[in-house]
Design a protein that fits this description.
elongated; 5 helices; four-stranded antiparallel β-sheet; about 30% helix; about 180 residues; alpha+beta
């Protein structure tokens, strides 16, 4: 699957009519890291997650699908676009939720409130160069279970609804799941 690995192993010089030519483009640090990290991520995916690369040669862009098997969002499938910028691993990947859902930590525009996706964070859980793609996947997956945070919401309306009327909150979640299933 990981064909970029071949590019990394390719000789640094090529011969054309007996003349050695240096390659024009060098492999970036990000791409070297991604070869290993994508393999590690795929080997450690939670059972509720799947990853899809539109182009297997482009490891810095993929779609993560999270299908929670418990909790409020059980039965839904939520897609996230993940883009790994050139300054990775010094900066976190850019992540956006592509599926509209009713969630206190994901707003209706797809923005996500998750500490490890922040370059700087007031807690110790922000991005650090020691983090990996698998940490991002596990963090997004955990937004539907143990990292669910109603106290510091991005979608204030969803958090307030939960605090006032959990049954109405659950109904709204189910409504959004039903709409997203209809758009397959």
């Amino acid at each position: 699957m990981i064909t970029l690995n071949r590019k990394l192993k390719k000789e640094h010089t090529e011969t054309t009519n007996g003349v050695k030519i240096e390659p024009i483009k060098r492999i970036s640090v990000r791409d070297k890291l991604l070869v290993k990290e994508v393999q590690e991520m795929n080997e450690n995916l939670p059972a509720t997650c799947s990853v899809n690369f539109e182009d297997p040669n482009v490891l810095n862009e993929f779609i993560l699908t999270v299908a929670p098997d418990e909790g409020y969002w059980s039965g839904g499938k939520f897609k996230f676009s993940v883009f790994v910028t050139e300054d990775y691993n010094m900066a976190p990947p850019k992540v956006k939720c592509l599926t509209r859902l009713w969630h206190p930590n994901i707003n209706l525009d797809g923005e996500i409130c998750l500490s490890l996706l922040r370059q700087t964070s007031i807690d110790e859980h922000g991005w650090a160069p020691t983090r990996r793609l698998k940490d991002v996947v596990w963090g997004l997956n955990s937004l539907f279970t143990d990292l669910l945070n109603f106290e510091d919401p991005l979608n204030i309306e969803a958090a307030e609804m939960y605090k006032v009327n959990k049954i109405e909150f659950q109904s709204k979640v189910v409504e959004y799941i039903a709409v997203s299933k209809g758009k397959r």
